[in-house]
Amino acid sequence: MSALPLLLFAKLPEPGKVKTRLARGIGAEAAAMLAAAFLADAARLLGGLAGTAPVLCADPDPDADFFRQHFPSPWRRQAQGPGDLGERLERAIAGELARSPRAAAFGSDHPLLPPSELAPFLAEENAIWPTDDGGYAALVVSRRPGWETLFAGIPWSTPQVLAATGERARLAGIPLRAYPVTFDIDVAEDLPRLEVEIEGLAPDAPAYPRSTAEALARLRSERAAR
Fold first, then answer.
1. What is the largest CA-CA distance in the chain?
2. pLDDT per residue over 6-29, tens digit each?
3. Per DSSP, what are the bridge partners of residue 11?
4. Dist. CA 195–CA 137, nearest whole Å
5. How close are the terminal C-alpha atoms of the chain, in Å?
6. Is the peptide bond before 74 cis (omega within 30 degrees of 0)?
C-alpha cells in the first residue's frame, strides 16, 4: 500500500503577517512566537506518522530558513501558490490524488489534536475533523467524483465553513465521517483553554507539544515581568 500524502498548510511565522487576530490581544511578536511553536510541534507529530508521506504546503516560500530548519526530510516542501484557501487546498490535493487514491490536509492552528485519534482518522476514506468555531482542523478525501467541490464556494474564515463543506459533500454523494470536535487557536481568549489542556498532559509523552508549552511559559514570564 502506498503512503498516504499528508499535507500541512502553514504560513511563515513572521510578526505582523501571521495570527493577526491573536496578535490583537497579545501583540504581533508573541503571536508569531506561538505560531512558530505550533508549527514546530506539528512537524514532529505529523512527520513521524507511519504510512504517511508528509508534505509542507508553505506560504509564501517553502525554502525559508524556518521551514528548512523545522521541516527536513521526510518532509517534502512546496509552495501553496495563489488563490483563496479553497483554491490552494484543491490544487495541492489534486496533485496528490493524481498519484494516490487518498490524501489528507491539516491546518496548523491545532496544537492538541489527540494523537490516539490520528491513525484512525488517516485510515478513513473520507473524513473531517471539526473545530468548535464552525471550521475544521483536518480533512481526508479519496479520489472519487466530486471531491473537488468540497472547496468550491466555501465562506472561508467564517463559522459556516464546516456546514458548507458538509453540504457540498452531501450534494456530491461523499460520506464525510465527522470526528470528535477539537479547537483551534485564533484569538487571545483561546489561550487559557490551551494552557489548561497542556497542563493535563504528561511532559514525557512522545506527542507532548513541548514547543507550544515552552512558548506559553515564555509568554507568562514576559507578562509577569511587566
1. 57
2. 999 999 999 999 999 999 999 999
3. 59
4. 19
5. 55
6. yes
CATH number of the domain where residue 26 is located? 3.90.550.10
Q: What is the mean pLDDT of residues 193-215?
A: 95
What are phi and psi for residue 209, nearest 5 degrees? -80, 75
- Give me the residue label for grid cell 525559508: 64
Dihedral sign computed on CA atoms, order 48, 51, 53, 56: negative
Instruction: Give the Å distances, CA to CA, from 5 to 36, 141, 159, 164, 215.
Output: 23, 11, 28, 25, 29
**CA 108, CA 167: separation in Å to the nearest integer?**
24
Domain that holds residue 140: 4-224
Taking each helix axis as running N to C, give the angle between helix 28-47 and helix 210-224, from 0 to 180 degrees, rounded to the nearest 10.
160
Please give the pLDDT value at position 1: 62
30, 219 Cβ separation under 8 angstroms: yes
- How many domains is the chain partitioned into structurally? 1
Give residue 226's pLDDT: 72
